[in-house]
Each structure stands twice: as structure tokens, then as C-alpha cells.
């Protein structure tokens, strides 16, 4: 479910309607505390259809299930690797399909392998960038030491 379609169905999410008891749902502030994401960021991911609160209180407050929080954690881990919103959406759908057993398992696993390879390549690139940055910082430290 994406964008405006998700907004019209606040109780639904890509995995279906949650059977989570209301007592196990948490409000957006608690989700922000658990994930380290800002309220604004969580709302934006909702607007983009990446995560939709499982339910709302009578007063309209968003309520999230453990599955919703897990989706946000996946998004949070993809972001520093430079994955686009559509790629995030695709992986979240793929993971939901694998969990539910829907679709061709072999094809789903092939797509998951592609995401793994992309993530691994991006991690390698980040490590190389970090090594360059550390060398630069060490060089600056060396300049400081020689000028004391």
C-alpha cells in the first residue's frame, strides 16, 4: 500500500490488517525513542507509504505494532547505505512476502540476494571512504604534533 492509498486505510499495512492487541501497540513518541528516528521522519515515511501505523486511537494518535517498528528499523539501516525510497519499499515488500509465504520463494530469495550484494558493495565503499577520512584526520593530527 502506498501514499494516499495507505492514508485512506490507516489500520492496514502491506502485511495485512494487524491482529496485534491494542495493549501491545505503542504511540509514535515511543517508536521514536526505540528507533532513534524523529517524529517528523516517522511521519514522512508514513506519507511515503513505507510504514503505516497499525491503528489509531479514538483521538487520532498513531499506534504502531512491533512489526511496524521493525519496518522502521529496516528503513533506518538502509538509509546510510544510500538506498532510494523505492528500493526501501521494494525490500520491505519482499521481506513481508517472504514472511507470509506468498509469491515464488525462489524468486524472492534471488531478489533478496541482490539486495544483500548491493548492501555489501555499499558497505565496502563506505569502509574505503572511512579509511580515506581517517588518513586525512591522522595527517592533520601529525601537523598539529609537529607544530607544538
* Structural class by SSE content: mainly alpha
- Based on CA atoms alone, the radius of gyration comes out at 20 Å
* Strand portion: 5-15%
Gap between N and C termini, in Å?
Answer: 61 Å
Number of strands: 5
* Rounded average pLDDT: 87
Strand order of the largest sheet: 3-5-4
What descriptors fit this protein?
mainly alpha; three-stranded antiparallel beta sheet; Multidrug-efflux Transporter Regulator, Chain: A, Domain 2; two-stranded antiparallel ribbon; disordered N terminus; 148 residues; 6 helices
What do you see in this structure?
The protein has helices at residues 3-8, 28-35, 39-47, 66-78, 85-100, 105-146; strands at 12-13, 16-17, 26-27, 55-56, 62-64. The chain has 148 residues and is mainly α. It has a domain at 1-75: Orthogonal Bundle (Multidrug-efflux Transporter Regulator, Chain: A, Domain 2). It is flat, with a radius of gyration of 20 Å. The termini are far apart.
Please give the structural blueprint:
Layout: H1 3-8, E1 12-13, E2 16-17, E3 26-27, H2 28-35, H3 39-47, E4 55-56, E5 62-64, H4 66-78, H5 85-100, H6 105-146
Antiparallel strand pairs: 1-2, 3-5, 4-5
Helix pairs in contact: 5-6
Quick structural overview:
The chain is mainly alpha-helical. The protein contains six helices and five strands, in the order αβββααββααα.
